[in-house]
Amino acid sequence: MKKLMLTALAVVSFVVANAQETNNASEGFSKGDIFISGAVSYGSEKTGDTKENTLTLTPRIGYFANENFVVGLRAGYISQSLENTFFEDVFLEELDINSFEIGGFGRYYTTPVNKFSFFGELAVSYISIDTDFDTGDFKTDGFGIGFSPGLSYFLNPNIAIEAAWGALSYVTVEPDFDGAESTDTFEIGLDLDDITLGLVYKF
């Protein structure tokens, strides 16, 4: 499914940047800085009677342990609602999948004191997925690890926008019922269709 990325947060940041007066603080990051960031995406697709809606939220908080390296906490929530679709070769009138993940991350910024900087991020997460369908439900648990390159650009001394995309990831999950087998997924590559835009606020 092709996701329609909502960049409302980025648009708002441009408005805020133009509306605020420049203060004495410097753009870019330095040791001891704390930032919060997040991204939102929403996708909707309809083919005949088959419908799918997807909402994704990814908040995080980071701390500059030194001039280049950030450590932080991240969370993620994905809600998928499907109608008249197939799941495991079974036709379902309704299917809801809610995924939650929480974990930590580390980032390395190449030129953090500048207005523009590239970064690389390594993240690990615990994953929990609840699947509800016509006749029942089940839960899936697992973990994931991934590496993502990205870039950030400061609009004013406190607000930046960032873009990141997945380059390398490994995820293993297992349904919570007897006889279930784990599903292990490994991906490598740069899929430009999955670029995530986010808003960063530096304290």
TrEMBL record:
Residue ranges constituting the Outer membrane protein beta-barrel domain according to the UniProt record: 8-203
Pfam (any one): OMP_b-brl
Name under which the protein is recorded: Outer membrane beta-barrel protein
Keywords assigned by UniProt, alphabetized: Signal
InterPro entries: Beta-barrel_OMP, OMP/PagP_B-barrel
Signal peptide interval: 1-19
Gene3D superfamilies: 2.40.160.20
